[in-house]
Amino acid sequence: MRKLALATMAVAAGTMLVLTSCSSSRTEAGSGDAASGFEEGSTIGIALPAKTSENWVLAGDLFNDGLEEAGFSPDVQYAAASGTVANQQEQIQSMVTKGAKVIVIGAADGAQLGTQVAAAKDAGATVIAYDRLILNTEDVDYYVAYDNYNVGELQGQALLDGMAAKKADGPYTIELFSGSSDDANSSVFFDGAMSVLQPAIDDGTVVVGSGQTDIKQTATDGWKAENAQRRMDSLLTSTYSGDTALDGVLSPNDTLARAIITSVQQAGKDVPVVTGQDSEVESVKSIMEGVQYSTINKDTRNLVSQTIDMVTALSEGETPETNDDESYDNGEKVVPAYLLPPQIVTKENAAEAYANDPTLGPLTK
């Protein structure tokens, strides 16, 4: 089911872009200058999307410090505040021009970077997709991320568990939110969650009050909080203006979760069970206060560290370690991946989950 969901995601995204044809002589993944090793002090490009969450900001800082410590010269760039694809395309092309040996890309839109990663490969660079898969191109070498399908599964199960803890018997009325349609991860999170929720919907244990179950209906443009809050406001007016209770909301991340909660609170209604992701400070505080129900712990420090390990291996002429070479079909190839395990966090296990986190640990005591 997971492979099918990922393949479907990639094929659907393929209609968004016709990539420039590439020379058949281009080096294959894992070959080229970078795979032969490169010298200390080499430029490593890090192209990240807009600073829409704490984790993207933290990632940039960690890449700067970690790559310098490892003996490389980091070139960390963020797409414009709006996260425009054109801005990121220019930044990646600039990294190619500077001679970056490896370019790590957290895609602003994974379906619109084909020309840029082709240029990177032509220049002999290795391309690593970071957190978000780059779609419909053979020119991405590796993918490093948390297991995003499992993230969705954990969110779906947390929603069911949280509602059952508050009310022993169903049916439970919920609403569904998903991420931005230009982020390849959005459908992976959503598909993972729906693999858990759909059986409960089918047997009537769970009811989607608005009837909006298609990902096109649930999407949140740009992952922006104001868009999630606006949609929640509309749902409350259209579906929950009377006595109908809202038991739960599937939220794909913490930023949107807080916006959804704000909408419900401003409407004077009881806060439902709301899921999240990213372990943002304000959401961890909210969880400890019993407001937001759950988040997902995906320690950015571990993800950046794993990526830097990949860069180091390449600099030494070695093949980076991967642990999933079957699941992530981007529409043109199966991309070798290193997946880290995500962790569901509720008030009950927050202290244990963040015991070694200097920022979040103190919030859970």
Kindly describe this structure.
The chain has 365 residues and is an alpha/beta fold. It has two domains: 2-140 and 299-341, 3-Layer(aba) Sandwich (Rossmann fold); 148-298 and 347-354 and 358-364, Response regulator (Rossmann fold). It has twelve helices and twelve strands. The chain has helices at 2-14, 54-69, 85-97, 114-122, 148-166, 184-202, 215-218, 225-239, 254-266, 281-288, 300-315, 350-353; strands at residues 43-48, 73-78, 102-105, 126-130, 142-146, 172-176, 206-208, 248-250, 273-274, 295-297, 337-340, 343-345. Strands 2-1-3-4-5-11 form a six-stranded parallel sheet, with helices on both faces. A four-stranded parallel sheet has the order 7-6-8-9, sandwiched between helices. A two-stranded antiparallel sheet has the order 10-12. Strand 8, helix 9 (254-266) and strand 9 (273-274) form a beta-alpha-beta unit. The protein is elongated.
